[in-house]
Amino acid sequence: xxxxxxxxxxxxxxLLFVVLLTAANLRTPITATGPILDNICQxxxxxxxxxxxxxxxxxxxxxxxxxxxxxxxxxFGLEKTLWAALWLIGIGSGLRIIGNESGLWCGTLVLSxxxxxxxxxxxxxxxxxxxxxxxxxxxxxASTMAITASIASGVAAPLAAFSEGGWTLxxxxxxxxxxxxLFAWRPLLARAAVPRAQASALTPAGLSPWRSWLGWxxxxxxxxxxxxxxxxxxxxxxxxxxxxxxxxxxxxxLFLYQIVAVAANLACMSAIRRLRDQRLxxxxxxxxxxxxxxGLLLFPVLAALWLIIxxxxxxxxxxxxxxxxxxxxxxxxxASHLSGMAQCVGYSLAALGPLFFGMLxxxxxxxxxxxxALVGMSLLQMMLAPLVGASRxxxx
Length: 396
Known about the structure:
396 residues, mainly alpha, 15 helices
């Protein structure tokens, strides 16, 4: 093996290490909050509406800041912007635990802004620096986010209950991965600062995804799978309880849904590398979501089976969505813009989905029509799958 090959391999592994460390910080500050939300509300005397807003802020920040994050990454460089994003996550996480309500709200806004930027910029970084391993890195990145999110959710309540630090300790422990990631990024910053700035000036802008049908198709595909995922996470427990399941059983079923999605992340990563295009993969993933939702609507007693099927589709759809940012663009700048657009649309739908689902249920006092609406969303995703899965690029 030549010296250049050794250096390339070492650089690729270093990039993967940093990407995975960054991914480990992109959901934990949020998922660690849910199980201890009652503790936080008691500390600050928050109302139910304020608690709902605290959960609503991150998704809306992801949507609102996605296009700005894409612009910042192209203007200041991916490395520098991702470095700044990690600082925002760390500062915001610190503000939340200083002991006053202003810190809680400001911290949530700040860390959500950092996560929004990193969400957008990691896929184009992978496209630029790991073109031969894009599907692999995206799959591992998505799996790392899902696994660490599950861990954060699982240990939050025990940490709060069995320590003097209470809920502040549950949130504080997730500052450690941020600190590690900030140090891990330093070598990449030093190597990439000057060349990347020069290279960015030479990169053609290309057709904006906002002016492309393909850009809108990818964005809607991302949005529809996100809407279904976050709506199920938000509303499955009360739906399951209305069908005879206990709260504990519903919680374990949701855990099963998310763990199956992690397995699908890895399987989809391998499939993308082997297939000529992604039409069949996208259709099968969407069909799995459709089948799982239809099963929940018609035969809720078999909820475990339907959540396994839907979880497989959800995990595969997420990895496919993230991969499309690279596969459907000609260069990293265009990938940044598509990532920003798709996540703007996607997280807007993800935030509004649970809200409208709840409103329908409240007005109709029934779960049937809200679930039928979700089935319709998954059917629309199935129709989009062959369009986004075809091997082509924006502007071609």
